[in-house]
Amino acid sequence: MTGPFGPKLSAKIAERGNLCAGIDPHPGLLDAWGLERTVSGLEKFALSATEVLAAEAPVIKPQSAFFEAYGAPGIAVLERVIAGAREAGALVLLDVKRGDIGSTMGAYTTAYLSGDTALAADAVTVSPYLGFGSLAPAIETARASGRGVFVLARTSNPEAAELQKALLGNGKTVAQSIVDEVAAVNAGAGPLGDVGVVVGATVPPGELELGALNGPILAPGFGAQGAGVSDLRAVFGTGLPGVLPASSRDLLRHGPDPRALREQVRRIRSSLAELEFGQ
């Protein structure tokens, strides 16, 4: 698929639903799958999970840190995950949470969002906490190459609240200010902008105004972290297109049996279909 990321994501959601399936080779999950905490175990885990999840979900989300922990051989496995997911028809949202300034941000952008590297994904997560303007290289490169970025706004980890709920001089919270910046970038795009936000599914309903966002929303905290379908409805309503509830460990604990893992993906996808996001 070619063209801007937003329409590509919209088409993939229409085809496969809204689930974002995480691939987190956490050491505890390798143990649970009966695998060693080695590059060989990582490879077996990640490629087996990718084979099942990328054939079912619209988006897979590898957590880069768990691959980086194994050094260069781990990065090589991540490259294979990205390639395998694409071959299976899924979009790849690489969870790297990069955020820096100037040439350093430009280098991250080249690594993850240009078409010239094996690590280039369809979208990446980025941090705006060196100033939203510091993300300009990532946003510009992503758009030029038909990719997207997801900006951390109101995350699901409890320790984020003190910063992200802090009030600015204009009376808005830091998180709302980030959402509004993204909305301005997405203005006029259709059917969905290329820049998304990360808003936890465990955020209190009504805390953020998301109606003008015009972009996708990655919603961590679904599943093992406590949020269910009813929480998604309360936080996001059913009028917002592009909501991607993310499930990682709650999915992956059903492996290594591929049939059990596939059945769990389908159960979650079916439960999310009842919400009819954006319909």
UniProtKB/TrEMBL annotation:
Signal peptide: none
PROSITE patterns tied to this protein: OMPDECASE (PS00156)
E.C. code: 4.1.1.23
Orotidine 5'-phosphate decarboxylase domain span: 18-264
SMART domains named in the record: OMPdecase
A Pfam family recorded for this sequence: OMPdecase
GO MF term (any one): orotidine-5'-phosphate decarboxylase activity
Pathway(s) it belongs to: Pyrimidine metabolism; UMP biosynthesis via de novo pathway; UMP from orotate: step 2/2
Catalytic residue positions: K97
InterPro entries named among the record's database cross-references: Aldolase_TIM (IPR013785), OMPdecase_AS (IPR018089), OMPdecase_type-2 (IPR011995), OMPdeCOase_dom (IPR001754), RibuloseP-bd_barrel (IPR011060)
Domain of life from the UniProt record: Bacteria
Keyword Lyase: yes
GO biological process per UniProt: 'de novo' pyrimidine nucleobase biosynthetic process; 'de novo' UMP biosynthetic process
Reaction(s) the record says it catalyses: orotidine 5'-phosphate + H(+) = UMP + CO2
Keywords recorded for this protein, A-Z: Decarboxylase, Lyase, Pyrimidine biosynthesis
Record family assignment: Belongs to the OMP decarboxylase family. Type 2 subfamily.
Protein name: Orotidine 5'-phosphate decarboxylase
Organism encoding this protein: Amycolatopsis acidicola
